[in-house]
Amino acid sequence: MVVSPVLLAVLLSLVSAVCYALAAVVQERTAADTAGVRGALARGTWWWSVVLNATGALLHVVALRYGPLTLVQPLGALSLVVAVPLGSLVARRRTSRAQWHGMALTLAGLTALLTVTASGRAPDDTLHTAEMLGVALAALAAVVVLVRLAARHSALEGLAFAAASGVASGVGSTLAQKLVVGPTFSWSTALVAALTVGFAVGGLLLSQQAYRSGLGGPLALLTLLNPVTASAVGIALLGEGFRYGETGTVLALAGAVAAVHGVTLLSRPRSAGPDPRRYDGDDLPRLPVPRPTAETLTPAAVDVVGAGRAL
Fold it and tell me: Residue ranges per domain, the chain?
């Protein structure tokens, strides 16, 4: 049985999304137990997230070899659908109805996007170094602005770092595709490879910093911005597009709206409840203590109470 390149790209992207989801959960749990990135680097569990992210990235690059960027990138959003219930399971809490609703909308939006991008035109085989350098510089400027925003506004720290991670990861995916479909080794190819590694590592460290604010919101935002960034570059510079003309464009926009709404629902904060792993007497409700009456006391107890009153 011969597997079509598009189907192979989808399968590789799904496995990649699962790896990314597992890595995100490990990163979030590590961030909750450490003070910052340096503390996370000293934890052995964090390096498991690096292995999972590397595996997901490798599968993602291979998927880009068989499918267009506008197909492979949206499938990365499935990592959010996997990570949310998995994170709830690890934290020993139930996944809320709003979160399930958000996952359903995200899947519906992705289905609409895949319908019009499954046969998108593959990018040409010419490696435009000047264009890639322009994209890299623009992305670097955006990352710097977002990091400065995180430093100035603590309330937006998690989302700003997540946005920076999404931009960096999306550009890294774009550069990675130009490598797998590009020419043989040359100095320009080596430069693009170095930029790819730099953006990939930067995206990983920025996401670790973002997960200090929790899992849902940061993961939702970087999951959204990753395919948006890469797809925008793919459509603008790499010759990719949507099927069915204007109808396909409208369907893609509708799918994008549904996916954005789903991501918004998934990123809503949950009300904090007691941690089942901790037991503290102060967390127990204070119930009123009933006053003893003659009907509830034994004869011996009545004599003791009477003696106490006499004193």
Answer: 5-266
- For residue 221, give the DSSP letter: H
Task: List the structure tokens of 270.
Answer: 């949950």
The Cα 70–Cα 228 span in angstroms is 9
- Cβ(95)–Cβ(88) below 8 Å: yes
Q: Measure the CA–CA gap between 56 and 21, rounded to whole angstroms.
A: 9
In Å, the largest CA–CA distance within the chain is 103
Query: What single string gives the DSSP state of each residue in 241-253?
Result: --SSHHHHHHHHH
Tokens of 45: 């569990």
Please say whether the beta carbons of 192 and 133 come within 8 A: no
Q: Are 224 and 84 in contact (CB under 8 A)?
A: no
The pLDDT mean for the chain works out to 76
How far apart CA 309 and CA 237 sit, in angstroms, is 92
Return the pLDDT at 271: 54
Phi-psi region of 237 (alpha: psi -120 to 50; beta: other; left: phi over 0): alpha
Q: What is the pLDDT of residue 279?
A: 42
Instruction: Read off the tokens for 206.
Output: 């920025």
